[in-house]
Amino acid sequence: MSDDLPVRGSITIPRAELRWRFSRSGGPGGQGVNTTDSKVELRWNVAESDALPPVLKERALTRLAGRLVDGALVITASEQRHQLQNRKAAEIRLAALVRDAITPDPPARRPTRPSRGAVERRLENKRHRTLKLQNRRVD
């Protein structure tokens, strides 16, 4: 279990389902930027994964539809100079995206009306502010 990527609670992504790709990254790095493969691309196939229960999987597929490429979620990280740091950043980003995608919708807001006292206080404050601003005018 420690080999899995924790998402939320008991939900984890098996590391065997993660596909890594490395390439040279642009940006800072000095002479080493031309020799090290520090850019990381992390790919997780949501559609074929068994890591999520069917309900959460369907929710994730719906919410991540705009980010999926052939059913796979692709995360790219190249901010750091070291590959290991970029790998960790990509894992954190993947876990956060999946966590946000599987969280249930908040309960619907029950519309309410402001109380009569709240309406009266708001109108009284408006009148007071109008009078204060009118007194500042120079005619």
UniProtKB/TrEMBL annotation:
Keywords annotated in UniProt: Hydrolase
Sequence segments annotated as region (Disordered): 102-125
Pfam families, A to Z: RF-1
UniProt domain Prokaryotic-type class I peptide chain release factors: residue ranges: 24-40
Stored PANTHER family: PEPTIDYL-TRNA HYDROLASE ARFB (PTHR47814)
Family indicated by similarity: Belongs to the prokaryotic/mitochondrial release factor family.
Superkingdom to which the source organism belongs: Bacteria
GO biological process: rescue of stalled ribosome
GO molecular function term, any single one: ribosome binding
Name of protein: Aminoacyl-tRNA hydrolase
